[in-house]
């Protein structure tokens, strides 16, 4: 179980059970998850309608009774997020939306299932920055409300709003610094949930990924002129040389050292 106090006490369970049975219980929080492998029965009575298979989503409201039994020989690998009702309610109010109306143990929605998987990967990655985690979780919550809210008032304007333009400018001005999502949202006059979803929809990258790309571009410019790789990593805002190296290679297909040496 992972706990993120900086994300309003969010808890995340990454489970991989070969043979496990949960007693009937309930949570004070929401339970929102997706099965990655195998199947599980969440029904408190063991009914077939509680069976959740690979790629399917569970959304269980606070106080809703449920259980959990691993099915089949594959076991069950899944991720489950436990956000507080207060956090989700605040997010919904900031987006002029309602809490999810669908509360089922088995939901088909491939796009949101993929978002849950991506969010779990970023939250549990030790190389992720606080900004990475803030952005991916806020975007996930915004997607949750957009997909499952009974009143979907959210739209993305065709033109770039002043708030989004200010957000881009802010990230350019602070690309090598640690950015806090709540401060960024306050600076541009948007809720952090609207900001993350609209920014990604308009520019094709989340705010944290956009900042990372700015850092990579600065790193490329500095590497092309030579210099110490560790110093360049620090100057560009990366945690350390290995952090920059991993992201640089995954983006450009070469290591920073190789890029620098070919440029000199």
TrEMBL record:
Database matches in InterPro entries: AraC-bd, AraC_XylS_family_regulators, Homeodomain-like_sf, HTH-like, HTH_AraC, Tscrpt_reg_AraC-type_HTH
PROSITE patterns: HTH_ARAC_FAMILY_2
Domain of life: Bacteria
Gene Ontology MF terms: DNA-binding transcription factor activity; sequence-specific DNA binding
Record keywords, A-Z: Activator, DNA-binding, Transcription, Transcription regulation
Domain HTH araC/xylS-type: 165-262
UniProt name for this protein: Arabinose operon regulatory protein
Annotated source species: Yersinia nurmii
Top-level taxonomy: Bacteria, Pseudomonadati, Pseudomonadota, Gammaproteobacteria, Enterobacterales
């Amino acid at each position: 179980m992972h706990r993120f106090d900086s994300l309003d006490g969010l808890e995340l369970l990454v489970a991989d059970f070969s043979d496990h049975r949960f007693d009937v219980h309930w949570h004070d929080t929401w339970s929102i998850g997706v099965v990655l492998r195998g199947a599980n029965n969440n029904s408190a009575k063991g009914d077939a309608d509680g069976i959740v298979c690979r790629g399917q989503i569970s959304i269980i409201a606070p106080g809703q009774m449920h259980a959990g039994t691993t099915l089949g020989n594959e076991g069950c690998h899944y991720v489950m997020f436990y956000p507080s009702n207060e956090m989700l309610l605040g997010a919904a109010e900031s987006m002029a939306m309602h809490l999810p109306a669908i509360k089922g143990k088995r939901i088909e929605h491939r796009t949101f299932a993929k978002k849950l998987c991506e969010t779990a990967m970023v939250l549990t990655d030790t190389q992720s920055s606080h900004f990475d985690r803030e952005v991916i979780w806020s975007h996930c919550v915004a997607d949750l409300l957009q997909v499952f809210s009974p009143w979907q008032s959210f739209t993305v304007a065709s033109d770039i709003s002043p708030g989004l333009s200010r957000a881009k400018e802010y990230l350019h001005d602070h690309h090598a610094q640690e950015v806090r999502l709540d401060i960024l949202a306050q600076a541009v006059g948007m809720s952090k949930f609207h900001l993350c979803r609209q920014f990604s929809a308009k520019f094709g990258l989340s705010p944290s990924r956009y900042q990372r790309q700015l850092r990579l571009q600065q790193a490329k410019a500095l590497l092309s002129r030579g210099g110490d790789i560790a110093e360049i990593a620090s100057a560009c805002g990366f945690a350390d040389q290995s952090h920059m190296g991993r992201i640089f290679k995954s983006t450009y297909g070469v290591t920073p050292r190789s890029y620098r040496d070919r440029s000199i």
